[in-house]
Amino acid sequence: MTAATARPPVSHREHVVIQTAVRGLFDRLPELTDRLVEEVRRRQDPALRGELDDRAFWKSTYMGLRATLEAVATRGGRRPDLGFAHRLGRRYAERRIPLDTALRIYRLAGSILWDAMVEVTRAKHPQDLPVLVIGARRTWLMIDELSTAVAESYRETERRLRHTDVGQGYELLDGLLDGHGGAAEAAQAAGALDLPERGRYAVVAVRVAALRAADGAALPEEARGIRLIWRGRGGVRYGIAHLGTAGLDDLERALRPFLTRDVGIGLVVDGLAELAQARRLAEIALSTCAGAEPRITRLDRHLPEALVATQPDLAAHLREIVLGPVLALEPAERDTLLRTLRVWLDCAGSTAAAAERLYCHRNTVLNRLRRLEHLTGRKLAHPRQALELALAVEAVRLEAGFPAGGDPPGAGGSPQPSRA
């Protein structure tokens, strides 16, 4: 419903009375402006802190009252007050002053103008008061139209600013992921993207090459109550997960319907300012995803592998010093010994469980482990030497690119149980 069609007809007599009352107020505009500003100040709206002492606020209030009086005095046609209302709504949105505050000021202005019109009429033409009261419906309808214009402009500007803010928020988020920015940038990104500046976050790293054709568009923005914002860097997509009260177990379960492989989940950090660290931790987790086996890797469950992956030079020395004699064997024997060691470690040192997974007799597992101990000069019963062997075999896996607990290249385990 437009301003032109919504306004009820007004009689000639009503119009004359209203015009007479309004003309008596133009000279009192400075006084009315002071009254309105003082009333707004008295209400102590925190959203207007710092605005009321600005001369520009007084001037804007004055211009708004004047435009409203001019509109009330007209019987139709041009409405300069609507243009002013649109500009005011835009300015309030740009200054992040709540819409409710703007509308309260407009209604308060309407009350002050109406009271002043009644004062003028009672003082100079008291016989016209009944007619003025009849015309009140038109005056208040115009105030409502102005409030509607303010609200429409405010919301339109808010949508535009929101779009701009979100874009800037993503740019700030990218900078935080790259290690550029601190608390100030984190606060700005939080405000733009409706995220808490301080909170529990984790970063997920996904190799783009591992995504199915449809996965790129299907990466979830929310899963199991966890909000995810995805950003791209080269061949990796990074998901910034706001965990809230959820844990990494929840995050892993939330991702599984969408992602099945080459996914690294870092550790929990305490705010957006720590995203660069969270990204690095996710990349470390991703770096332990070797081979073709589908795998979501959580750093908190693969810390030894992460230590090896982050020190490639030391890993190379570890492979050579600890497993050099094993690596020098013929490929078939080498791969059999390495796989047996890995499976035995994955089975927490249980020879029986390792034999089940390897489809062989437990004595075969024992014989292979003794052969490996003889070649390396290290005992699996010795904690420190067992640790060296565990890290060294992980270094071999990462360097060769075969999956955890799987066959090294050329191993080709038999699908049928063998008790040899």
UniProtKB/TrEMBL annotation:
<dbReference type="Pfam" id="PF14361">
    <property type="entry name" value="RsbRD_N"/>
</dbReference>
<dbReference type="Pfam" id="PF13556">
    <property type="entry name" value="HTH_30"/>
</dbReference>
<feature type="domain" description="PucR C-terminal helix-turn-helix">
    <location>
        <begin position="337"/>
        <end position="395"/>
    </location>
</feature>
<dbReference type="InterPro" id="IPR051448">
    <property type="entry name" value="CdaR-like_regulators"/>
</dbReference>
<dbReference type="InterPro" id="IPR025751">
    <property type="entry name" value="RsbRD_N_dom"/>
</dbReference>
<protein>
    <submittedName>
        <fullName>Putative transcriptional regulator, PucR family</fullName>
    </submittedName>
</protein>
<dbReference type="InterPro" id="IPR025736">
    <property type="entry name" value="PucR_C-HTH_dom"/>
</dbReference>
<dbReference type="InterPro" id="IPR042070">
    <property type="entry name" value="PucR_C-HTH_sf"/>
</dbReference>
<feature type="domain" description="RsbT co-antagonist protein RsbRD N-terminal">
    <location>
        <begin position="30"/>
        <end position="164"/>
    </location>
</feature>
